[in-house]
Batch of 2 targets.
Target 1
Amino acid sequence: MLHAKAEDAGRTWIEVNPRHTSDGCECCGHAAPENRVSQAEFVCQRCGHKAAADAHAARNILRAGLALHTATAA
Ligand SMILES: [Zn+2]
C-alpha cells in the first residue's frame, strides 16, 4: 500500500532492514541493546554519543536507505 502510493507520487521506494537502526550508534557504529538506556534515550556505551532515541533511529534508517539507493543507482 505504501509502496504503491510512493510510486504514484513519483517517489523512490527503498526498503531498509531495521536491524540495528534503534540500537546502533550513528557516530561509531557500535550496536548493543545497552545503548538504549531508556525507551526515549540513546547513549552509546562505546563513544558516549547521546541522542533522542526516535530521532537517532530515524537518522540511521535514512542513512541506510540513502546508502542502498546509491548502491542500486550505480
Ligand atoms: Zn558510538
Target 2
Amino acid sequence: MRLSVAILCALVAVQAAALLLAGTAAAASELKVGYYHKKCKGVENVIKWHVIKALKQNRRTGAALVRLLFHDCFVRGCDGSVLLDKSYENPHPEKEAPVNIGLAAFDLLEEIKAAVEKRCPGVVSCSDILIYAARDAGSILSNGHVHFDVPAGRLDGVVSRADEAQAELPDSTMTVQQLKDNFAAKGFDTEQLVILSGAHSIGQGHCSSFTGRLSEPPQQITPAYRDLLNYKCSQAANPDVVNNVRDEDASVVARFMPGFVSRVRKISDFLDNTYYHNNLAKIVTFHSDWQLLTDATSLSKVHEYADNATLWDSDFSDSLLKLSQLPMPEGSKGEIRKKCSAINHLY
Ligand code: HEM
C-alpha cells in the first residue's frame, strides 16, 4: 500500500515536471525567420538534406509532406498533433480520423527528428520540422517555383483527438458552400480555398475517397476519365489512384483517353497549375474539386490560375505560408518533443 502511494507520488511529480518544462504556445506574430540560427545552426540544411534524399527515392513522399502540413495546421494549429501515435492514455489521436486516410511520411519526419536531436537535443520542435520539410518538398516538386521563408519557434502540442480532426478538416464529398465555410472558419477566403486546392496536382487518393465520382453524370466528370477511374478502382481492394491524370500509366491513359497521352508527364508529382486545367476539363478525382466550378467566385479563380501559372506559384507560396502560421488554441501548453510520435512524459 505504502509502495503504491510512493509510486503515485512519483508519477505525479514526473507529470508536474513535464508541465513545468512545457511552455505556452507562441502566437503567429512571435514566430521568426531564422529562429534556429543561433539555437541550432544549420538545422534547416539538415532537414532539407533528408527531404532531398527521400524525394530522390520517391517524389510522392513530397506530396505526403504538403498534405501533412495542411492536416496538422487546420486542427489545433501547427503543433505536430497529427504526428502523435495512439497510446494507452490517448487511444484515438488525429491519425485515427477517417478524414486522415492515406497520411504518410511519418517515418521520414521521425528520421529527421532523430538527426536533429543528435545535433541539438531538445531544441527543435516537430511542428517546425514538419513545416520546413513540407516547404522544401513544395520547392523541390515545383522546381523551385514554390518557395517561402519559414517563420519558426512553434511548440509541439500535447493534445490530439480524432473527433476534432474529423470535425475540422474538409471532406471530399463537400459542396462548395461547405468548403467555403470550412476554410472561412480558419480565416481563409474563397480565393485561398481555390489556391490551396491546387495542391491536388500532386499525390494520390484512395478509391474510397471518390466513390461518388465513379457514377457521376457527364456534366460533372468526363465519361472517359470516369471509365479510367472505374478501371483503376477495380484492380484491387480500395487502391490508390494518382490525383493528376498526367501522372497515370501512359498505357492506361492510351486505353481510356488516347487524345491525352501527349500530356502524360515524364516526371510525376510536379506541383504546378495543371490542377486547374484538369478541373476545367472535368478530369479531377474528388467531388470537392469539381464543386469549385459551381460557384461564380471560385470558378473565376479556377480560370485565373489555369491561365497564369506564375501567379499560382506565388499565391500558393503565400497561402501555404499563411497555413503554416495557424496558431494553437489560446493558452495551450506545448513542449519540444523528444520523438514526434509521442508526447514527452510518455516517452
Ligand atoms: C479543399 C478541401 C480539400 C479536400 C476535400 C481534400 C481531400 C483530399 C483527399 C480525400 C485526399 C486523398 C486521401 C486518400 O484517399 O488517401 C487528398 C490528398 C491530398 N491532398 Fe487534399 N483536400 C483538400 C485540400 C487540400 C489542401 C489545402 C492541401 C495542401 C495545401 C491538400 C493536399 C493534398 C495532397 C498533396 C494530397 C496527396 C497526398 C499523398 O499523395 O500522400 N489538400 N486530399
